[in-house]
Input
Amino acid sequence: MPMANVSTARKVGIVARVAAQQIGRSRHVGALLRAGRGVAGHLGRVLGQLWLEVTGFVFLALAGIGVMAVVREYTRYQAGKATVGRVILAVCFTAVFGWFGVSSFWRVRKRRPSA
Output
C-alpha cells in the first residue's frame, strides 16, 4: 500500500507510535517514568492519609458540638422543658459522629507502614 493513499490522521498516528517506541527505549525517559510513578504513589498515600485525618477532625468537632447539645438538652430535660427523646437524639448524634471521627484516625494508623 503506497503511503500516498493513507490519511493524514493515520500518518500522524503511525509517527506518534514510532516516536513513543523510540522514547520508551531511552534509559533516561524510563527512569523518569519510574520516578514519576513512585512519586505519584507516595503522594497518593499521603493525600489519602491527610483526607482521613481531616475528615476525622471534622467528625470529632461535630461530636464536640453534640456534647454541648447533650448538656443543653439534659439541663432542659431536668427543668421540664424538653423530652427524653431529645436527649437520646443528642446522645446518638454525639456517639455516631464520635465513632466516625475515632474510626477515621484508626484507619490512618492502620495504613501507616510500621517502622
